[in-house]
Specification:
The chain has 237 residues and is α/β, with parallel strands linked by helices. It contains nine helices and eight strands.
């Protein structure tokens, strides 16, 4: 592997998230105090270079990265349903990570690790090229106003970076309930030469909604408000 394979240039001028309050419930604080030192890390506190996932998880297994785990409603169920995967969740919202640990504790999962901070920095500086089995981005902030579209996570540079971190045959799975963002996602992913659409022959190239992806209250709300859910599943060539 040459040097250009190891590092994908990525200079950011804006970020796709906003910083929110960090006040936690009593239960969230207890979960944080019990589990964060073992299960979590700040992205900014990671040692220089790639994460040693096998050491952190205590085993070698296919690695799944979810970007933006929110309050953990979906993530905890996905982790429990994939005990053979090393599941990484990256999120900027501290109470959300605490709530995810609380949910994971109730489900008695052991294959989850959490990272707090910028997913792009994590991917760029701490994830080995061709090391991930899957990257999942479910219902990212749509930044619906046109002047804010530049803040959307799914952009050509970020998708190129993500694709470089997927192993051959690895999957990038996106889902959104915003039509305009779905179209942007499709355009960006189709233009990325490292990826191919697994469902290119389906109408519009959209993937069927996977039955295993849990339905959240936000997805139900989107249906109630008349917004269609779009899934996109692309594979690393």
């Amino acid at each position: 592997m040459n040097a250009s394979d190891q590092q994908v240039p990525f200079r950011r001028t804006v970020v796709s998230y906003v910083q929110r309050g960090e006040r936690m419930t009593v239960g969230q604080q207890r979960a944080w105090d019990r589990h964060w030192s073992e299960l979590g890390s700040e992205v900014t506190a990671l040692p220089e270079g790639p994460l040693d996932l096998a050491a952190w998880f205590g085993r070698s297994a296919p690695a799944v990265l979810e970007i933006g785990s929110g309050m953990g409603e979906t993530t905890s169920q996905l982790v429990a349903a994939q005990p053979d995967a090393n599941y990484l969740a990256v999120e900027v919202y501290k109470p959300g990570l605490a709530q995810l640990m609380l949910r994971a504790e109730k489900l008695e999962v052991t294959n989850l690790r959490l990272l707090r901070g910028d997913a792009i920095v994590l991917l760029r500086d701490h994830i080995e090229p061709a090391s991930l089995a899957e990257v999942r981005i479910y219902f990212p902030d749509p930044w619906p106003k046109k002047r804010h579209h530049k803040r959307r996570l799914v952009q050509p540079d970020s998708v190129r970076l993500i694709a470089s971190r997927l192993a051959p045959g690895g999957v990038l799975h996106l889902a959104t309930d915003w039509e305009n963002y779905a179209e942007q996602m499709m355009e960006v992913c189709q233009a990325e030469p490292q990826l191919r659409n697994r469902y290119a022959d389906e109408p519009g190239g959209w993937a069927p909604r996977p039955e295993w992806r849990p339905v959240t209250k936000f997805e139900n709300r989107a249906h109630e408000e008349g917004r269609e859910i779009h899934d996109l599943i692309f594979e690393r060539i």
